[in-house]
From TrEMBL:
Signal peptide per UniProt: none
Protein name: ABM domain-containing protein
InterPro entries xrefs: ABM_dom, Dimeric_a/b-barrel
Organism in which the protein naturally occurs: Streptomyces similanensis
Boundaries of every ABM domain copy: 2-92
Amino acid sequence: MFGLLVRFTCKDADAATAFDELVARTGECVRAHEPGTVVYAVHRVDGRPLERVFYELYRDEAAFEEHEAKDYVRFFLAERDRYLSATQVERLDLVSGKGVSSEGSSSCG
């Protein structure tokens, strides 16, 4: 599994509303067309109304590359900077988790 943790900071409240609309449209397409995208979750940050956190988990790097090549993702990437003052991206390598397939068997009995 391959993942991303992305933190976005919007410019202001109006930009946050527009960004959320862009995110919603993009998310609909991800859910409909990307079987290799295991999780594509977007969160508002409690107490920080201009911040959004994306948690993305892909079956593998090939699924991530397929995601990045989609027209609706390319549109999102081209449009997002209109609404943002900062972006921080961290690449993740899954070690363990619930709700995702992993190698090996359980030792919990």
